[in-house]
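User: Look at the shape:
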Amino acid sequence: MELGVFVTIGTFLAGIIMGVPLGWLFLASTALGLAFLGESLSFMAGTFFHSINNYVLMAIAFFVYAGSLISDAGLADRIVRFSNALVGKMRGGLIVVGIVATLFMSALTGSALPCISALIPLLVPRLEKFGYKRSYTTAVLCSSSFLGYLIPPSVPALIYGLVAQQSIAALFLSTVFPGLLLALGYAVLNYFICPRYMTTPEVQEEEQDFGEHMRELGKATWSALPALGAPLVILVGIYGGICTPNEAGAIAVVYTLLVGFFVYRELNLKTLWSATHNTLVTLGMIGLLIAGGTVFTRLLIREGAAQALADAILGMFQNKSLILISMNLFLLLLGMFIDGIPILILAVPLILPLAVQLDMNLIHLGAMIIVNVGLGVVTPPYAISIFVGARLSGVSYGELVKPMMLFLFIVGIPVLLLTTFLPALSCWLPTVLLGARVVGPW
C-alpha cells in the first residue's frame, strides 16, 4: 500500500480521537490521502453522488419518519398497555412489559433510539411507584433498545443491503430469531435479578381473576390493534410481494399519520412538524455518513487495503472459527467508539473480501454484523442509548452501566456467538420464505 493510504487511515484515526464529526472526517481524510497519492479529487465527487443516488435511502427516510411519529401519534401508549395486559402479572412482569413493548416498537421504527425515547418517559416513573429502581428500569430499556436493529424493518439491514448489494427482504428476516432470542434471554435474566434492583418488595397491581384478566387483555388488544396493524401491514406487504421496502416505508408513514390524526387523535400539526424536522436532520446526517463513508472506503479498496486486511487475517489464523471471532472483536471494538451507521459503512466493504474468501454466506454475515452493531449501541464508553437513556430518565451514566453489563455479557454476547456460529439461525427463515436462490448456500 502507498503512503497516501497510510495518511488517509492515520488522519481518520486522529480525527476520531479529536472528536471530528465522522461525515466530514471521511471526506477530509480521503481528500488528504488523494493529495498524497497525487490523484484528482474528481473521484470523490463521482463516488459521493452515486452513493446517495440509491432507492434504499428512500426506504430509510420513510422508516425514520414513521419512527419519529410513533410516540406523538399515541401508538406507544397503546402498545405499553397491551404489553402490560399480556405479561405484566408475572414476577418482574412490569420490566418484561418494557421488553415486549420494545419488541413491538421495533417492528414500527426500525431503529433503537425511537424505542427508548418513547418508552422511558412512559414506563420509568410508573415502575418506580411499584418498587423498581429508576436506574434498573432505564438500564433494561436501554439494553432492549437494539431490538430496533434486529426486528424488521431494520435501518441497519437497509444500510448493509445497500453497501453489500444483498436482498433487503432476506436481511430483514435474518435477524428475527436473534432478536427473539435476545428478548427471551432478557426476560429470563430479569426474572432472576430484578429483586436486587427494587427499593421495596415488588408491589403488584390489584389481583384480578381470570375473567377480569381476559377482559382487560381484550380491551387492551382492541385499543392496540391500530398500532399493531402497522408492522403487519409493512411485513405482509413486503413478503406477500405486494410492495417493495420503499413502498412499505411510505405506507408505514401514511398509516401512522392516519392512526395518529383520525383513530387516536393525538397527532397535531405542531408534533407533525417536529417529527418532520427531526427526520430531515437525521436523513441529512445519514446521507452525509453514507456518501462520505463510501468515498473513504472506495479509496481504501481501490488501493488494496481491504485485500491486505483479508490476507493479514488469513495469514494469522488458519481456523475459520478464530477468523470469525477476530471479526467480531474488530466490530465490537469499533462499536465502543463509533456509532452503528458509520461502522456499517466503514467495516462492511473491508470485511467483504475476507467473507468471500471464507465462502461465507453474505446474508449470514449481515446478521452477524447487525447484531454487532446493535451491541455497539449499548457498549461503553460510547453508547448512544446510555447517553439518551440517562438524559431522559435523570439517572447518571455510571448508574446505568453496571446492570447493562449483566444483560450484555449474560445475554447479548451469547446471542452474538450463536448468530456467528449457527448460520441456520439467520438463514433458515429467509430461505423458507424467500427461497434458496435469494439467500444462497449456507
Remarks:
- The chain has two domains: 1-40, 41-439.
- The CA atoms of residues 12 and 18 lie 10 Å apart.
- The longest helix spans residues 269-302.
- Residues 41-439 form one domain.
